[in-house]
Amino acid sequence: MSNAFRELLRKVGSGTHTGEDLSRAEAKAATQMMLLQEATPAQIGAFMIAHRIKRPTGEELAGMLDAYEALGPALQPIESAYPVTVLCLPYDGRSRTAPISPLTSLILTSAGVPVILHGGDRMPTKEGVPLIELWQGLGIHWEQLSLDRVQHVLETTGLGFVYLTNHFPLASGLVTYRDQIGKRPPFSTLELMWSPYAGDAHVVCGFVHPPTENMIRDAFARRGITNFTTVKGLEGSCDLPRDRTVIIGANKSEFERLCLVPRDSGFAAKEVPLSPTDEWVEAVQAVLAGKPSELTQSAIWNGGFYLWRCGVCPDLDAGLAKAASLLTQGAAAQKLDEISKATQSLVAVQS
Question: Who's near 282: CB < 8 A, 6+ residues apart?
């Protein structure tokens, strides 16, 4: 048993009247002890559930991010005309709506904006479809690449994926506790903010509940992160909805609230429902082939916004037009083919 960890657990688990928030340094220390399994399983599970009940603070999340930076993987800086965009999506995946982020990534990278994604396998308690399975369906096997190979793909194609199971086994080792406690721990919020990139990045954070956005803003302010976007997206992801106003926070030098109304741009519709992965892959391939569909419209709506937000286009209308062009003229499809060939050649070399 770790006596040092027990003292930190006592602070967060002492209840409404006597419990205390951790300092940034204490939160970093607690996270490191959990990642390194220096705390016992009983201590780790107790901390996760106690911290969930208490709710993490922005200062605590900043400390947890410090620990991830100290012990986790990081892709190295690359040269690019635009900052690398890190899309942070819930690791427990999707269960109701069709994922758009792979298409968004292809649109952005085909326009010269590098993109980094990260995630793991099926994650308790939701057990939704994770990104890794979607990319596998598209013929991209990130799980077969070492981190240095992912770095090469990022440098040559503009897309990278940090796979928790292989690239950050310390964090992957904590996944089983999510199933055992039956609730999302604060690590699920941390993952919405984590940037596994050593250079300056534009970090995009999906969220569901407004308090989460406030915690993100507080933690980023403490860590000096100024280029970020928050999105009240589909199932907490970075995917912009079409059946409601999109609530977005855009921060560079200062925070700006954006409320995008899909109807104003002609994109209002019911969300495309989640389908089995093989059917989703067929639908994505049809989008990349330039065939019109509701999924195509969702891809243009998302791609157009992010092209504007990342600085490729001067306004939303120009972004929407460019996203449509990149799909109909085959640039996004060519980018997928480029990434597929790059990853396949590296897998063969590794083998």
Answer: none
Tens digit of each residue's pLDDT (9 = 90 or more) over 60-97: 999 999 999 999 999 999 999 999 999 999 999 999 99
**45-50 CB contacts, 8 Å cutoff, 24+ apart:** 45/177, 45/180, 45/181, 46/9, 46/13, 47/5, 47/8, 47/9, 47/12, 47/13, 48/177, 48/178, 48/181, 48/185, 48/186, 48/187, 49/181, 49/183, 49/185, 50/9, 50/12, 50/13
Q: Domain 84-334 - what CATH class?
A: alpha beta
Q: Which pair of structure tokens corresponds to residue 108?
A: 């952005």
Structure tokens at 348: 């063969």
- Whether 17 shows a pLDDT value over 80: the answer reads no
Same fold, 3-71 and 84-334: no
Tokens of 209: 């509940």
Q: Given pLDDT bands bounded at 50, 70 and 90, which one contains residue 350? A: low
| pLDDT at residue 305 greater than cutoff 90 | yes
pTM of the model: 0.97
- What burial class does residue 70 get, using C-beta atoms within 10 Å of its C-beta: 0-12 exposed, 13-18 middle, 19+ buried? exposed
Residue 44, Cα to own-chain centre: how many angstroms?
A: 24
Annotated domain spans of the chain: 3-71, 84-334
Contact 182, 208 (CB under 8 A): no
Backbone phi, then psi, for 278, in 5-degree steps? Answer: -65, -35
Q: What is the mean pLDDT of residues 218-236?
A: 98
The string of pLDDT tens digits covering residues 111-121 is 999 999 999 99
Superfamily of domain 3-71: Transferase, Pyrimidine Nucleoside Phosphorylase; Chain C (1.20.970.10)
* pLDDT above 70 (res 56): yes
What one-character-per-residue DSSP string does 180-234 give?
A: HHTS--THHHHHTT---BSS-EEEEEE-SSHHHHHHHHHHHHHHT---EEEE--G
Residues 196-218 as b/e (b if ≥16 CB within 10 A, e otherwise) read bbeeebbbbbbbeeeebbebbbb
Q: Is the model's pLDDT at 38 over the cut of 90?
A: yes
Q: Would you state the structure tokens that stand for residue 305, as one six-digit string?
A: 């916004």
